[in-house]
Design a protein that fits this description.
Elements lengths: L1 H27 L5 E11 L7 E14 L2 E4 L7 E7 L7 E9 L4 E5 L3 H4 L17 E8 L2 E16 L6 E9 L9 E4 L2 E10 L2 E6 H12 L12 E4 L3 H6 L9 E5 L16 E5 L2 E2 L5 E4 L3 E4 L13 E8 L2 E8 L21 E4 L2 E5 L2 H4 L6 H4 L2 H5 L13 E6 L14 E6 L2 E2 L3 H7 L7 E6 L7 E5 L2 H14 L5 E2 L9
Antiparallel strand pairs: 1-2, 1-4, 2-3, 3-6, 4-5, 5-6, 7-8, 7-10, 8-9, 9-12, 10-11, 11-12, 13-14, 14-15, 15-16, 15-19, 17-18, 19-20, 21-22, 21-28, 22-23, 23-24, 24-25, 24-26, 26-27
Length: 496
C-alpha cells in the first residue's frame, strides 16, 4: 500500500519538476537580454509651478539590436540622468536616449560604455502574435535575481496608449506578477511578444511586437513618421430606423459619423455627419464598428489608424451618403497633445505660468487637473474636467485659468478665488499665456480688467495697473520665495 502511494507521488512530482526545470532554463537565457533602467528626473508641482523636486523611476529594458535597448517612454520625460545595469546588480552605465515617442509609449536607449555591451545578446521579436493557450512568461530583474512569472493570454483589444490618446492594438494578460507595467518583456517560444505598459490588478496590458516593429522602423527612416488618428466621432449603426432614414438597405452594418471637428492641419475633411462608413482600408465594418484583423481577430476600427499607417497617409474609405455609395480618400492627421483643448501631457519643459499682483495664471492641462490626486477625474472641478472632451480649434487652441491668488493687500477680496477660466483681459481675447502677456501691456484707464467665461463664480476682477501692480508682484515673489514672475514657452499650453 505504501509502495503504491510512493510510486503515485513520484509520478506526480516528476512532471512538475520537469516543468520547473524547463521554466528555469528558459529564464536563464534572458539574463543576457534584460537590463535594469534607472531614471532621475525633474517632477513639477502644477499647483505651484515654480517649484520642482527630483524623483527616481525604475524600469526594465530589453536588448533588441546592436547597442540598442528598447523601453517604454513613461517615466523618461524631464530626465536629468538615465543609467542602465546588466545582470541585475553591479556597475551602472550612463545611458542616453536615441529617440523617444511619447504617443507610442516607446523609447530606444544606448550607452557609450563598451564594457556594458560585453556578453549582452539581442532578443528576437516574434513575427507571429501569441494565440489563446500560448505559454507566456514575464521576466525582469528583481533584487539581483531574474524573476520569471507565468502569464495567461486573455485577449487582444484596442486601447489608448499610456499617456496619449493614440489607439493601437494591445495584448491583455493575466498574471500573478506584482508592480509590473514598466517595460518588462513578455516571452513566448524564446521570442519577445511585447513589453508591458501597465498593470491593474492581475491584468497586464502589453505593447505588441508588431506595433513595436512598425514604430522602430518608422524612426529608422530618413524622415521619421508620426502616428495619426481618426479625427471624427462615430456611433454603431445598429438602429434600423436610422439606417432606413439614410436609405441603407440590407443587414445593419458600418458606423454612423456623428461629429467631424475642425482639423488644425488645414486639410478639409472628406467626411460629414450622417455619413455611414462601410469599409476602411479594405476592411468591412460591422454595425459595432469592428473589423476582422488578419493577425488579431475582431478589433475596433480605431486600430486601422495605426495599423501600418502614419500621419499624412491617404486611406480609402467606402461610405454611404445621401442614399448611395461613395469612395473617399481620408488623409490621416498627425496626433499632437495640442489637438486637445486640454492637453493630456506636457513633456520636457517647466509648467508655464504668469504672476500678476499675486494672481497666478496657467494653461489648463491634464497634469494641472491631476494634482487633485489619484481620483482626479472625479474630484477635480467638474467645469474644468468638462473641457477635456473638447477639441482644440484655430479660434480656441487652448485655455488659460486663474489657478490661485497669493494673498497680499493689493489683491484683498480675491484671495479665495481659483480655477477660473479666463475669457478676456483688457478687452482682448485670451487663449494662451502669450495673449495674456500682450493684453497686460494695454491697461484700460490705468486698470487691468480680467473677465472670466460665463457661469464662473466670479465674472470680473479689476486691478490697478502700473507701479502699484509691479511693486505688489515683487513683494509677493519675495514673500513666497519665487525666483521669477513668469515662465512662458513658445509652445505654451500645447505640450510637445
Amino acid at each position: 500500500m505504501k509502495n503504491h502511494f510512493a510510486i503515485r507521488l513520484l509520478l506526480l512530482i516528476a512532471p512538475l519538476a520537469a516543468l520547473a526545470e524547463t521554466i528555469s532554463t528558459n529564464a536563464s537565457t534572458w539574463e543576457k537580454s534584460v537590463v535594469n533602467i534607472e531614471v532621475a528626473r525633474k517632477s513639477y508641482d502644477y499647483y505651484q509651478p515654480w517649484n520642482r523636486r527630483s524623483e527616481r523611476a525604475a524600469k526594465t529594458g530589453v536588448v533588441v539590436g546592436e547597442r540598442q535597448i528598447l523601453a517604454t517612454a513613461q517615466g523618461l520625460s524631464d530626465q536629468t540622468l538615465v543609467r542602465m545595469q546588466k545582470n541585475g546588480r553591479g556597475k551602472w552605465a550612463t545611458a542616453s536616449v536615441v529617440w523617444i515617442d511619447y504617443h507610442a509609449n516607446l523609447a530606444l536607449l544606448t550607452t557609450e560604455d563598451a564594457a556594458f555591451w560585453r556578453d549582452l545578446r539581442p532578443a528576437d521579436l516574434t513575427s507571429k502574435p501569441p494565440a489563446e493557450g500560448a505559454k507566456l512568461q514575464i521576466v525582469r530583474w528583481r533584487e539581483g535575481k531574474l524573476e520569471n512569472r507565468q502569464a495567461e493570454f486573455t485577449q487582444y483589444s484596442v486601447n489608448e496608449s499610456v499617456g496619449s490618446a493614440i489607439n493601437h492594438v494591445q495584448m491583455e494578460l493575466d498574471s500573478e506578477i506584482r508592480d509590473a507595467g514598466s517595460g518588462e518583456p513578455v516571452i513566448t517560444d524564446s521570442r519577445v511578444a511585447g513589453i508591458t505598459a501597465s498593470q491593474l490588478g492581475r491584468t497586464c496590458k502589453v505593447i505588441t511586437a508588431s506595433f513595436i516593429h512598425s514604430v522602430v522602423d518608422a524612426h529608422k527612416s530618413v524622415s521619421p513618421r508620426v502616428l495619426g488618428y481618426f479625427h471624427f466621432y462615430w456611433q454603431p449603426a445598429e438602429n434600423p430606423a436610422s439606417l432606413a432614414q439614410l436609405k441603407l438597405s440590407g443587414e445593419p452594418r458600418g458606423v454612423l459619423v456623428i461629429n467631424v471637428p475642425e482639423r488644425l492641419d488645414g486639410v478639409d475633411s472628406v467626411l460629414k455627419p450622417r455619413d455611414i462608413i462601410l469599409n476602411i482600408d479594405g476592411f468591412d465594418l460591422d454595425m459595432q464598428g469592428d473589423y476582422i484583423d488578419p493577425e488579431f481577430g475582431s478589433l475596433t476600427l480605431e486600430n486601422l489608424s495605426t495599423r501600418g499607417r502614419w500621419a499624412g497617409d491617404d486611406i480609402k474609405m467606402k461610405i454611404w451618403r445621401d442614399g448611395k455609395p461613395l469612395d473617399v480618400m481620408y488623409r490621416l492627421p498627425g496626433y499632437d497633445f495640442k489637438n486637445s483643448l486640454v492637453p493630456i501631457a506636457v513633456h520636457d519643459q517647466m509648467p508655464d505660468y504668469l504672476i500678476v499682483g499675486g494672481l497666478v495664471f496657467q494653461p489648463l492641462t491634464t497634469p494641472y487637473l491631476q494634482r487633485w490626486g489619484s481620483e482626479w477625474e472625479r474630484t477635480a472641478p467638474f467645469r474644468l474636467n468638462h473641457y477635456r472632451s473638447d477639441e482644440a480649434t484655430k479660434a480656441k487652441p487652448s485655455l488659460v485659468i486663474l489657478s490661485q491668488v497669493l494673498p497680499d493687500k493689493f489683491n484683498i477680496g480675491y484671495q479665495e478665488y481659483r480655477s477660473l477660466v479666463v475669457s478676456q483681459v483688457n478687452g482682448q481675447t485670451v487663449n494662451k499665456l502669450a495673449d495674456l502677456q500682450a493684453a497686460l501691456k494695454k491697461p484700460k484707464d490705468k486698470f487691468h480688467i480680467i473677465d472670466f467665461v460665463p457661469n464662473e463664480s466670479l465674472q470680473r476682477i479689476v486691478l490697478a495697473a502700473g507701479d502699484t501692480e509691479r511693486e505688489a508682484t515683487q513683494r509677493i515673489l519675495k514673500r513666497f520665495g519665487i525666483a521669477d514672475d513668469e515662465q512662458i514657452t513658445s509652445k505654451s499650453a500645447a505640450g510637445k
